[in-house]
Amino acid sequence: MLGMAVRSVQMMVDRGDLEAWKTPGGHRRISRQSVQRWLDVRASDSTGNARSGNPHAAHSAAKGPRVLVIEDSAHYQNLLSLLLKQHLPDADVQVADDGIAGLAMAGRLDPDILIVDILLPGIDGATLITSLRSHPQFRHSHLIVVTSLDEAQRAPYAFALSGVPVVHKTQIVTELPRMLAACVSRPASGQGS
């Protein structure tokens, strides 16, 4: 239901995000209602309005691409949303503020463009990107990474960033529009996003 790795769900249980209990054999059992509540909260868009359970229903009314921004900073969420409205005015833009919510939303929304920060709470961006790349469902998605890390600081994440456009947060206003134009002008090349 969540489209996440077992370990990610276990961490959610440990944090109390999901209600669960352990069987005598030590296996976790998670309440379906708890999962649905978590999904409902995460399905709310940035204005707080609940979205339809069918992500494609909303997109069928929209002319532009589905864009998912996974960024924990409210400042950069706002900046990215403004840039997206300016350069892709018909886009259906959704925002997740942590890696776990972003992974769940990506599975439900099937975004055309994913904009992901590297340093995220829950699941870091590199792990999230690697997870997304392992699913054929996201082969059509374009991926753009935004980060405050300089090139040397990004070295530990090189395994996830290979072949992915990366923009430093200080350059978002100047570089993101070009990257967005490239995304909408060509189909995804299977960059594994």
Summarize the structure.
The protein is an alpha/beta fold and 193 residues long. Helices cover 41% and strands 16% of the residues.
Write the layout of secondary structure elements.
Elements: H1 6-15, E1 20-22, E2 28-30, H2 32-42, H3 55-61, E3 66-70, H4 74-87, E4 92-96, H5 99-109, E5 113-117, H6 125-133, E6 142-147, H7 158-161, E7 166-168, H8 172-185
Mean pLDDT figure: 81
Count of discrete alpha- or pi-helical segments spanning 4 or more residues: 8
**β-strand amount:** 15-25%
Largest sheet: 5 strands, parallel
Helix content: 40-55%
Distance between the termini: 21 Å
Q: If you compute it from the alpha carbons, what radius of gyration comes out, rounded to the nearest whole angstrom?
A: 17 Å
What form results from the Cα inertia axes? Answer: globular
Q: Secondary-structure element sequence?
A: HEEHHEHEHEHEHEH
Order the strands across the largest sheet as they lie in space: 4-3-5-6-7
Return residue spans where pLDDT drops below 50 for at least 5 consecutive residues: 45-62
Give the class from helix and strand content and strand pairing.
alpha/beta
Q: Which tags fit this structure?
A:
two-stranded antiparallel sheet, 8 helices, alpha/beta, 193 residues
